[in-house]
Amino acid sequence: MTPRTGTYAKGLAKRAEILAVGLEVVAENGCRRATVREIAARVGLTAAGVVHYFESREELFQEILAARDDRDREIFEDKQPRPIDGYLRLLEHNTRVRGLVQLYAEYSAEAAGWAEHPSRVFFQERFDQLRADLTAVVQAAQADGSIGRDFDVPAVVNLLIAAADGLQVQWMLDHRIDMSAHVDQLWRLLAPRTASE
Amino acid sequence: MTPRTGTYAKGLAKRAEILAVGLEVVAENGCRRATVREIAARVGLTAAGVVHYFESREELFQEILAARDDRDREIFEDKQPRPIDGYLRLLEHNTRVRGLVQLYAEYSAEAAGWAEHPSRVFFQERFDQLRADLTAVVQAAQADGSIGRDFDVPAVVNLLIAAADGLQVQWMLDHRIDMSAHVDQLWRLLAPRTASE
DNA sequence: GTCTATATCGTGATAGAC
DNA sequence: GTCTATCACGATATAGAC
């Protein structure tokens, strides 16, 4: 996003390597126990070397999540056959990137809970973006008649996000929880209440 | 729960004081930045003194949350007039105990994400208890006909929990989010799809 | 049973050498 | 652009005072 280094190939590659290894370390130890030193050691640098690429531990975590969001956009936009399917596919995909789920859950809770957290704004904007994307999904489904119109759309959008977030914690505690099936159940509750049932 | 000390009045009072002050410090700094030293200083002890009452920082956090759950039970059981109202009242009450919401969000995410976390089992059991309680609520509502029967009950129970948990993070980022109104919207989606609509 | 003093070790961050 | 050295601060373990 905001490269702190030049655009030399070597620096960019190192930066990408740190992002990948950082995620790896988080996945193994959790966000709280993931240390800059450990990441540095694996990438062949000292802690100070890592901080040269990322201002702080916090910024590193934030950028790992931002990179994930960029990659996920492709999955989200594949809304086949229903408008919600892109979102459900994303939740399914999450089961294959445990470390990211873990980082997201821990780090978003930390950032939200502290008024001066350096990543607080990042998450506020992320939620706003997600709300806009899901509002479009809900409105598309209302337009094609696959869901009803007798509910509060912004509330349902927030519920779709909250359900996914909350289910991630339940899933981490018990991998038998099927996150996308659960959100799909929520989606089906939105079915039109007129005829056709 | 498992008092590490005797039953002398002085020890019990100090223990209770540490729990209260611990929550206070968490509320100000977030769980991650809440230190045993800070809690100890405010309560007039050294860090080792605090550890005498609570084996570790983790155990202290867990006991703060367990104490909250005990107190909350009373609110949850007041299901007036609908079976879900006790749960909704709880979410409303949460807006008045920001520190607890913050601790719960951060600490549950941390515990869930790490397989060897000392509080992992605590949260697994807490979720199981909550599932049992909410299953009873859903079944009671189905019995009195206020909600439908054409959905997966365990899935909806998990959704009710996940929605509440996920909304807490959204609420911390933006206090205008009305958590109980959102979950009430989810509940209303469960209304029977036959006649009476 | 209650608590302090002390020591060890790990942490993120920084300054300045190379 | 990367290092070494160092800082201030954290959790925790032990020994023992009272």
Summarize the structure in words.
The structure is a homodimer of 197-residue chains. With 197 residues, chain A is an all-alpha fold. Chain A has one domain (3-188): Tetracycline Repressor, domain 2. Helices cover 69% and strands 0% of the residues of chain A. The first copy, chain A, has 9 helices and no strands. Chain A has helices at residues 9-29, 36-42, 47-53, 57-76, 85-94, 98-113, 120-143, 153-173, 179-188. In chain A, helix 1 crosses helix 6. The radius of gyration of chain A is 19 Å and the shape is elongated. The model of chain A has no long low-confidence stretch (mean pLDDT 93). Chain B binds a DNA duplex (18 and 18 nucleotides) through helix 1 and helix 3.
Can you count the beta strands of chain A? 0
Compressed to H and E, one letter per element, the order of chain A equals: HHHHHHHHH
Low-confidence parts of chain A: none
- Largest interface (C-beta under 8 Å): A-B, 48 and 48 residues
Q: How much helix, percentage-wise, in residues of chain A?
A: 55-70%
Oligomer: homodimer
Instruction: Provide the CATH top-level class of chain A.
Output: Mainly Alpha
- Outline of chain A: elongated
**What structural class do you assign from the helix and strand content of chain A?**
mainly alpha
Beta-strand residue percentage of chain A: under 5%
CA-based gyration radius of chain A: 19 Å
User: What is the mean pLDDT of chain A?
Assistant: 93
CATH level-4 homologous superfamily of chain A: Tetracycline Repressor, domain 2
CATH architectural name of chain A: Orthogonal Bundle
What number of domains of chain A? Answer: 1
